[in-house]
């Protein structure tokens, strides 16, 4: 089943495969993919000209922004109904269970099916746990040199070498859509730490995120653990907080 977002692509698809099955994507305020209301009418004419073509439904990819989207969805569904496309299914994203119930009551002839990809990837973080393995531990005194760049230890403690580096996505930060005051303050705080040579890593020991000793390497990272903190042994696992959509994992265990 093909997903088609432009009338030109639909024309090309049906020209090559007149009996193709496809889902038509309608543009939303997200403005990523999708055809216009006028495009729906053009698609209806294309389907009518090829009786073997089978439209399975229309997809609406709504934005993640908080707030109700029912007004927008109703307008878009009305566009679909007005185009007189022969379909019964509308796929929608980022709607609550209550909003889906309202839509099903308002349009009893249509089946509204939620797109749940975002919930699967970004849903309950507690359902997944990411860990790294401690590969080596080195005791250091204040002023000792370490790492590729021969940085000096700011005080006594330990250098931990843990699995996970840039090849896994560690230290490669994806853009965030959070524009709140809290998020901006956190960005400023991270910038201050970075300027001082201290960058907080995603690796946690005893519930506290530890600092990178230096920028992560390709397959491993070096962390600084100050004197007095519990020192994990080689082979121990430490927790890692990462974005699941921007990380490559060495091993996945289902339990």
Unreliable segments (pLDDT under 50, ≥5 consecutive)?
A: 186-193
Write the element-wise H/E pattern from the N-terminal end onward.
EHEHEHEHEHEEEEHEEEE
The CATH architecture of the largest domain can be given as Alpha-Beta Barrel
Secondary structure class reads alpha/beta
What characterizes the major β-sheet? 6 strands, antiparallel, barrel
Distance between the termini: 33 Å
Whole-number average pLDDT? 89
Please state the overall shape, judged from the principal axes of the Cα atoms.
Answer: elongated
Count of helices? Answer: 6
Radius of gyration, in Å, reads 26 Å
- The amount of helix comes to 25-40%
Q: Identify the quaternary structure here.
A: single chain
Number of domains: 2
- β-strand amount: 25-35%
What's the total number of strands?
Answer: 13
Q: Find the CATH superfamily of the largest domain.
A: Alanine racemase
Spatial order of strands in the largest sheet: 6-9-12-11-10-13
CATH topology of the largest domain: TIM Barrel
Using the coordinates above, name the CATH class of the largest domain. Alpha Beta
């Amino acid at each position: 089943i093909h997903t088609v977002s432009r009338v030109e692509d639909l024309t090309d698809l049906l020209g090559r495969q007149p009996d193709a099955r496809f889902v038509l994507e309608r543009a939303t305020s997200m403005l990523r993919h999708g055809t216009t209301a006028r495009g729906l009418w053009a698609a209806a004419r294309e389907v009518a000209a090829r009786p073997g073509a089978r439209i399975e439904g229309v997809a609406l990819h709504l934005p993640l922004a908080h707030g109700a989207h029912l007004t927008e969805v109703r307008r878009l569904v009305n566009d679909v109904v007005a185009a007189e496309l022969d379909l019964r299914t509308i796929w929608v994203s980022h709607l609550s269970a209550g909003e889906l119930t309202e839509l099903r009551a308002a349009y009893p002839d249509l089946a509204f099916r939620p797109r749940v990809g975002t919930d699967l990837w970004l849903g309950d973080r507690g359902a997944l746990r990411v860990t790294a393995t401690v590969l080596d531990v080195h005791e250091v005194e204040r002023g000792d040199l370490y790492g590729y760049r021969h940085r000096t230890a700011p005080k006594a403690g330990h250098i931990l070498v843990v699995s996970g580096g840039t090849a896994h996505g560690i230290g490669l930060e994806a853009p965030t859509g959070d524009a709140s005051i809290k998020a901006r303050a956190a960005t400023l705080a991270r910038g201050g730490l970075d300027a001082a040579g201290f960058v907080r890593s995603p690796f946690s020991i005893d519930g506290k995120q530890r600092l990178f000793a230096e920028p992560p390497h390709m397959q491993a990272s070096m962390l600084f653990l100050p004197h007095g903190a519990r020192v994990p042994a080689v082979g121990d696992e430490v927790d890692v907080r990462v974005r699941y959509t921007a990380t490559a994992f060495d091993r996945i265990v289902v339990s």
